[in-house]
Amino acid sequence: MSTLEKRIDNLEQATNTHTNTVVFVRFDEPGEPDRELTGLEGSYSKATYQKWARIDGETEQAFKARACREVKRNPNGVALLFQKD
């Protein structure tokens, strides 16, 4: 490995390229803008398709937190979760 490649590798390791970002996409219907999430789907490829259902008594915030913990992220640490209702 050349000196330049080693330096680039060191810089990439020192820079956090994993964002651990989760983006929630929800579709509000007219007349129901504050409808709570009861189901989510997430995928960054067909092989990693995932689904979540809200458990009885679980708050929406706790549900979203659980999905964030469990979702498989792409190599950059990003995940997309879509409302499934």
Textual characterization of the structure:
This protein is of the alpha+beta class and 85 residues long. The protein has one domain. The chain is built from 2 helices and 4 strands, in the order H-E-E-E-H-E. The chain has helices at 3-14, 60-70; strands at residues 21-25, 39-42, 50-53, 78-83. It has a 4-stranded mixed β-sheet, covered by helices on one side. A hairpin with a 7-residue loop joins strand 2 (39-42) and strand 3 (50-53). The longest helix is centred in the N-terminal third of the chain and has 12 residues, at 3-14. It starts with a helix and ends with a strand. The model has no long low-confidence stretch (mean pLDDT 82).
**Mean pLDDT across all amino acids:** 82
SS elements, strand count: 4
Q: Strand order, biggest sheet?
A: 1-4-2-3
As a percent range, the share of helical residues equals 25-40%
| Structural class assignment | alpha+beta
Topology (SSEs and partners):
Layout (H helix, E strand, L loop, with lengths): L2 H12 L6 E5 L13 E4 L7 E4 L6 H11 L7 E6 L2
Which features does this protein show?
elongated; four-stranded mixed sheet; 27% helix
Summarize the structure in short:
The chain contains 2 helices and 4 strands; from the N terminus they run H-E-E-E-H-E. The chain has helices at 3-14, 60-70, and strands at 21-25, 39-42, 50-53, 78-83. A 4-stranded mixed β-sheet has the order 1-4-2-3, covered by helices on one side.
